[in-house]
Amino acid sequence: MPDNDDATGPWALRAACIIAACIIATVLGILPFATTSLPVVPPFLPICATTVCIVEGLTAYFLAIKFRASGEVFLGALAGAYGFVVVTAFLQLLIFPGVFTAAGLLGAGPQSAVWMWVIWHTGYPLLALLALLTRQLPASPRGRRVGIALMLGGPAAAAFFTCLAIAGGGVLPQLLQNISYHGVGQRSAGVLVLVTNITALAACIRLTRLRELVSLWLAVALLASLGDSVLGIAADSRYSAGWYVGRYMAVVSSSVVLCAIIFEFSRLYGKLVDANRNLASRALHDGLTGAFNRGYLIEQFPREVGRAVRSKSPLCLMMIDVDHFKSYNDIHGHQAGDDCLIGVVGAITSSLRRPTDFVARYGGEEFAVVLPGTGREGAMQVIAAMRGAVQGLTLPATARGGPVTVSVGLACFDPAEDLFAPEELIRRADLALYQAKQNGRDAVFEFAAAPVAL
After folding, report:
1. Which pTM does this prediction carry?
2. Is pLDDT at 146 greater than 80 in this prediction?
């Protein structure tokens, strides 16, 4: 069965109904004038046939890709149906009288081209019907083999029957009478074409309920193929109104499924981009607090130090620890502890001044804040704002009855005076944080400096 990603929405159903209505209106509007002669445009046929070959070939290719990915027999069989049209339309173009030579290429007889039209407009709906009947086959190794056989069988069947039409072009029953197409409608071949197209269209609607994107637009393609067949039978001759519009319907029939598949691929690509973006974000961010994780800090911090060296600008690093967090967690529970960490990260983030500043969860209740392009005085201003924001959080009181507080260790780097590795700056900030906690917590300590007054 087709997967849920193919499910149609109201927009797709409306669009398909509009196009189907246009097809029906066009066929019914042209049908009374199908035999009306119009100006002769010799390039029209090769242009239409080439368009059909290219579009049907792309459709078969994309369906084969979907089949390879999903293993759905239906998709492989449908790719075979479109491959059938590619071979038939291409060979019909080669043998069609007046396109390349007056009698056509490959030694075709006078009835070959019209019989190939019958093969085309009977074989495509038959193979589409066969594909619809395989929808219930499971995507198993055996089903995959069946799908491959049907996918390759379509073009093979086209080559076989068109070769018969070419080889027997001089002895086949006459469908073309003095360049008139009335013979098609007067013989059982015309009835076969119409019955096959109607049956395939009805089966598509009945079996799929038009619930999948490909099935919905396959129904539109089969409707256009039926319109092409009706106008082709009704047309009196080449370059009549019915003949011209029939060729147009062939192009429509070959295009709609391709457009649906391209849209589906575009939608899936957008989902893939969003999924990759989310995965990348999860790989860089802490799942609880939304701050960057330690891996990001380890990867990004040396780059910031290198950038500071190149630009000869200062850089400061803060290591922050939530005071008495273990006892806070024990008293209020893990959910309150999580809310506390989330609130602290929000307070820290709101205190950062530049887009290049960032906070990362270093581990447990400990966080690192990197301030590129910021010297000691600027860092102290950020710390003051941050501590005030933390103490202003509406969180349950600590075991001592006061608000949640943090201890801060600060280490600054001045490329004009200092020359050491990024790891050394992290070590210094860690030592400063240790001193802040040793000095009673709720304190700020700068490496190689006295404790800062609260």
Report:
1. 0.72
2. yes
